[in-house]
Specification:
Blueprint: H1 12-41
């Protein structure tokens, strides 16, 4: 999905969509890593 929106797109809407998707992706990756750490910590 990110590949549809380029950082150097001509329209403001496309640039904002691209920036938003990159931010969502970064936050999702961070949350996933935290979940893995918690999963590892609470295994029996």
């Amino acid at each position: 999905m990110e590949s549809q929106y380029r950082y150097d797109a001509a329209s403001l809407a496309e640039r904002m969509a691209s920036q938003t998707l990159r931010r969502i992706n970064a936050l999702f990756l961070e949350a996933y890593r935290e979940a893995l750490v918690l999963d590892e910590a609470f295994q029996d």
